[in-house]
Amino acid sequence: MTPFNKLPMEKVFRDPIHNYIHVADPLILELINTKEFQRLRRIKQLGTTSFTFHGAEHSRFGHSLGVYEITRRICDSFHRHYSIKNDPENGWDHQEKKIALCAALLHDIGHGPYSHTFESIFNTDHEQITVEIITSEQTEVNQILKQVSPDFPDQVASVIQKTYHNPQVVQLISSQVDADRMDYLLRDAYYTGTEYGSFDLTRILRVIRPYKNGITFHMNGMHAVEDYIVSRYQMYMQVYFHPVSRGMEVILDHLLKRAKILFREDPSYFKQQSQLIVPFLKNEFSLTDYLKLDDGILLANFTLWSEHPDAILSDLAKRFLNRKPLKSVAFNPETEKYLTELKGLIKKVGFDIEYYTAINSSFDLPYDFYHPAENRHRTQIELYQPDGTLIELSQASELVNALAGKTSGDQRFYFPKEMLASHQSDTYTLFEDKINAFNRYLKNGAIISD
Ligand code: NI
User: Are residues 249 and 222 in the same domain?
Assistant: First the structure.
């Protein structure tokens, strides 16, 4: 018998969203202490969004702990109220808690710096790397997971790949209302200082329940779920799709693209100055190479590149470091015809349009219901009615019905801010006519500048 004073203390992490994050299982603490997980402290959750909302400096470390904590609370509530012992058909098997917590904690472990842009330029895939970190024998994460059982790492990976046999566990980590989204909406709203993302998590955790094919919500909790859907919609429109953050993303995208092209022409500079980036410029990288990257590594390289003899590389590096986003206008199929003329004017002024213009589309589906015809449908949200039957959310909620199945977002044309210069501008006086013509186009084309 263990005397009371020898009982292991539960570890807590203080968190602005969840107050205390409770870690009772030593396995979870060991995973948090691995070098692969600690690396998430050095990767910002929202990438270029902090150029618009300066508070958004929070890391993927905090988010991952938050997803763990929400999952932990849901598992414990399921165990208390809906144990499989009382309801063998729809209940929750508490033996699944360990795997659910590990998958929640590790779901984003494969993210790298500025993932969104980095992935598109260097053909990396954070989901695939997440699975690799969990299953590769080289990682500390894998060594710790294997202590549970030899096949435990593969099982955790299968939750992330959505092939795990228990749909309740899969949907806790990945569905239209999952622990991941619940945490990032609240966390991102808090750190950006916006109110849109707030919803009543406590209420959602009270009305969520398991059933045989996944998770569902009590009918009387419908308004809390509605509120969550609306928050999600607002966060996408107001924060995630902000035109200025996207303008910085375009700069980053073009900067990395330029480095890749220069490397092909002459790798010697990068081999000397940017050793940690070389495997990616070469497109021959290992997991070890990937795990060395973080926001700081990229930014240090951009500082070096800002003095590179190539005018485009150094200019784009400076624009990124000093927050000089490209400007943008929204366009639609009708106004799209003006873009060719706008590009022509930008080219005449002397900008290389490959690097100084871009089209950026950001669209999201705030909520979707099941489409039998589609192969990759999303799990729809279902409400549990008093008679034990389920009803799909948009059938019950007029508010959600108004958003369901409709994409929201916009398509924007990005161009250098210098193109909006006034008559008095010294730098571009020579090109005054073109700049005036550009401005006339923006006005006459009835496309709104931002
Ligand atoms: Ni996540």
Answer: no
The CA distance from 34 to 291, in Å, is 12
Measured in Å, residue 181 CA sits from the centre of ligand 1 at: 7
Six token digits for residue 8? 């292991």
Q: Which domain holds residue 276?
A: 243-325
* CATH number assigned to the domain comprising residue 284: 1.20.1250.30
Q: Are 436 and 419 in contact (CB under 8 A)?
A: no
The predicted-structure confidence for 216-250, as pLDDT tens digits, reads as follows 999 999 999 999 999 999 999 999 999 999 999 99
Q: How far is the CA of 307 from the centre of ligand 1 (A)?
A: 36
Q: How far is the CA of 335 from the centre of ligand 1 (A)?
A: 36
Cβ neighbours for 421, distance < 8 A, ≥ 6 positions apart: 427, 428, 435
Calculate ∠ Cα 290-295-296, nearest 5°: 105
Task: Write down which residue in 182, 213, 241 finishes a domain.
Answer: 241
Strand partners, 327: 415
358 C-alpha vs ligand 1 centroid, how far in Å? 28
The pTM (predicted TM-score) of the whole model is 0.92
- Give the pLDDT confidence of 165-217 residue by residue, as tens digits: 999 999 999 998 999 999 999 999 999 999 878 899 999 999 999 999 999 99
Q: What DSSP state is assigned to residue 59?
A: B
- Distance of alpha carbon 443 from alpha carbon 449, whole angstroms: 8
Name the one residue in this structure whose structure tokens are 């998770």. 215
Cα-to-centroid distance, 64 and ligand 1 (Å): 7
Structure tokens at 128: 């695939």
Q: Are 133 and 139 in contact (CB under 8 A)?
A: yes
Q: In the structure encoding, which two tokens stand for residue 216, read together?
A: 């569902």
Q: How many domains does the chain have?
A: 2
Q: Give the DSSP letter string of 303-362.
A: HHHTT-S-HHHHHHHHHHHTT-PPEEEEE-TTGGGHHHHHHHHHHHHT--HHHH-EEEEE
How far is residue 383's CA from residue 179's CA, in Å, rounded to a whole number? 17
CA distance 133 to 140: 9
Separation of CA 184 and ligand 1 centre (Å): 7
- Give Rg (Cα) of the chain: 25
Domain boundary among 183, 217, 241: 241
**Distance from Cα 277 to the centre of ligand 1, integer Å:** 25
Residue 63 Cα to ligand 1 middle (Å): 7
Q: Which two tokens stand for residue 401?
A: 């019905």
Q: Are residues 158 and 31 in the same domain?
A: yes
